[in-house]
Amino acid sequence: MTPLTVFDRLALHPFTGDLRTEWLRKLGALGRPVLRHPGVRLFHEGAPANSFWLLTAGAVALDFAVPGRGDIVIERVDAPAPVGWSWMLPPYRWSLGAVVADECHAIEFDAPRVRGLMAEDGELGRELAMRFNAVLADRLKAARVRLAELYAYPAAPSEAERPAG
User: Fold this and answer.
1) Which residues 6+ apart lie within 8 Å of 75 measured at CB?
2) pLDDT beneath 50, residues of the chain
3) pTM of the model
4) Whose C-alpha in 21, 106, 140, 147 is 20 to 30 A from the C-alpha of 12?
C-alpha cells in the first residue's frame, strides 16, 4: 500500500479538502506528515509561532501558565482540526501553549512560508484567513464557556484558603 502524500492528506482533511487543487499543491509543498506522542509540547506561550498543524488523528491540550498553579488546560482540540493560529498575526508569538494529549498524526506547516504564499496569492490568503478566523471564533466561544463553568462552579477552598475561626 502506498503511503498518502501531503497533497492526499490535505485533500481528505475537512479543513482543506474543498480548496482548489492548485492551492492544495502549493500548501502540500509547505507541509510534512508528523507523529507526536502524548506529553510532547508543540509550543510554549510567548515563543515564536513558526508552525501550525492540521490534526488527522489524536488530540492536543491548549494551556497557559498561571502563576502559582502551573500550566492550566483551557481546551482540548481533537482531530480533525487545525492547531495554531498565532502564526497569522504579528508579532507571530504563541498566545497559548499546547501539549499532545493523545498520540497525534498531523500535517505540520512552515508558517513563515505559508504567510509568504498567502501574500503572493491574495485569493488563497483570504480563504485561509476566513477559515482560521472561524477556528478563532470557535476557540473564543469555548474559552467563554470554560470561564462560565469556572465561575459558576468554583472549586471548594483548600484548607489553607478557608478563613480561620
Assistant:
1) 61, 62, 139, 142, 143, 146
2) none
3) 0.85
4) 140
What is the CB-side half-sphere exposure of residue 79 using CA atoms within 13 A?
18
pLDDT at 143: 78
Residue 156, pLDDT score = 60
Which three cell numbers, joined as nine digits, stand for 95? 498566545
Look-up of cell digits 497525534: 104
* Structure confidence at residue 42 (pLDDT): 97
Q: Is 48 helix (H, G, I), strand (E, B) or coil?
A: strand
* Domains in the chain, CATH or no CATH each: 33-151 (2.60.120.10)
- The closest of 122, 128, 123, 120 to 87, measured between CA atoms, is 128
Q: Distance between alpha carbon 63 and the CA centroid of its chain, in Å?
A: 11
